[in-house]
Amino acid sequence: QVQLVESGGGLVQPGGSLRLSCAASRSLGALYVMGWYRQAPGKQRELVASITSGGTANMADSVKDRFTISRDDAKNTVYLQMNTLKLEDTAVYYCNARRIMGSVNYWGQGTQVTVTS
Q1: pLDDT tens per residue across span 30-88
Q2: How many Å apart are CA 111 and CA 19, to the nearest integer?
Q3: Best label site of 14, 21, 54, 58, fewest CB within 10 Å?
Q4: How many Cα atoms occupy the beta-carbon half-sphere of 27 within 13 Å?
Q5: Is the C-alpha dihedral spanning 94, 68, 115, 44 positive or negative?
Q6: pLDDT at res. 29
Q7: What average pLDDT does range 1-24 have in this prediction?
Q8: Beta strands of the chain (E only): which ranges?
Q9: What is residue 31's three-state secondary structure?
Q10: What is the pLDDT of residue 102?
Q11: Other Cβ atoms within 10 Å of 26 Cβ, number
Q12: How far from 29 is each of 44, 55, 73, 100, CA to CA, in Å?
């Protein structure tokens, strides 16, 4: 079992920045893809970004030029740097760890990001 704990959410004005962190309870390494999803009220959960242990990132088109995902396997942590935030980025952001082989999926409890003027 793996616990994922997110931090870094909060309230920010449009154009501002936030950095989310997600710490895993144990080393996941190359076996897992780490990622961030988000869910806005009344909408389905969507992939924001994911990254392999080798550093290959996959970004949603809506955030590609504004967000950066990174991971530090030595710290069992994945980060999401969010710049130039927009009102439509408001959502609960969830950390995810997905085993490359098989169907194992772990989720964090979520952290709220609210962009408001």
Answers
A1: 899 999 999 999 999 999 999 999 999 999 999 999 999 999 999 999 999 999 999 99
A2: 11
A3: 54
A4: 4
A5: negative
A6: 86
A7: 97
A8: 4-7, 10-12, 18-24, 32-39, 46-51, 57-59, 67-72, 77-82, 91-99, 105-107, 111-115
A9: helix
A10: 78
A11: 9
A12: 28, 11, 6, 11
Look at residue 62 in the predicted model and tell me its pLDDT. Answer: 97
Which positions ≥6 away from 61 have C-beta within 8 Å?
A: none
- What gap in Å lies between CA 77 and CA 41, rounded to an integer? 27
Residue type, 7: S
Which pLDDT value is given to residue 74?
Answer: 94
For residue 3, what are its two tokens? 């616990």
Residue 67 contacts by C-beta under 8 Å, 6 or more apart in sequence? 48, 49, 59, 80, 81, 82, 83
3-state secondary structure of 62: coil
